[in-house]
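Dear support,

I submitted the protein below through the web form. The confirmation email said the job was done, but the results page showed an empty box. After a refresh the structure appeared. I'm attaching both so you can tell me whether what I see now is the final result or a partial one.
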Amino acid sequence: MAEVINSHAAFYSITEGKFCRTFKSATNKSVERINKNGKVVHEEFCDALSGRITDIKIKDHPEFGKFWMITLSDGAWTGVVQMKYSSGYASAFLKLLPNVDLKSDVVIAPKMTIEGDKKKASLFIMQHGSPLKHFYTKDNPNGLPQMKKIKVKGKETWDDTEMMEFLEKMVFTEIAPKLNAAGQLSGSESNDIDDLDFQ
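What the results page shows now:
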């Protein structure tokens, strides 16, 4: 993950409940780490990002799979947040999305909690000084299919295929028309995500 100079966009991933931005060289705030490919990376972390949601795309990496790419802008700054297509962060974001006022700024804050020996990823959106509630809940699913328990090679696992397909359709049929400014919401793309550092 690195800065794209020509578009002036800052790229962020989410690591352990914090936004993470990677730089090619050290900054006065960065922490050095060696990623799984043996490459030295310099990362800065923050608890939240703020701005207006101006674009949502899906990008498909041939090795790492599908990612949501959410663009935020406050006029002077533009940031692009990547979330794995099927992740706790993405699920929480998409379930909140119908309650977002797309004409106003939001504050997005990821969170990681530990329950027993498992990590649980989530995400919160604040707007107009208050936290937003999920539009899709267990008590009021609003048509959202629930995850199903299936067996894969003899082991039970949760399958969210139908849920994520429903949420993807919601984004590009209900949210896309509201983000109709030029250059926004071009939909699903199949590109390499060269600007992102995969851990």
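Response: this is the final, complete result; the empty box was a page-load delay. The chain is about 10% helix and 45% strand.
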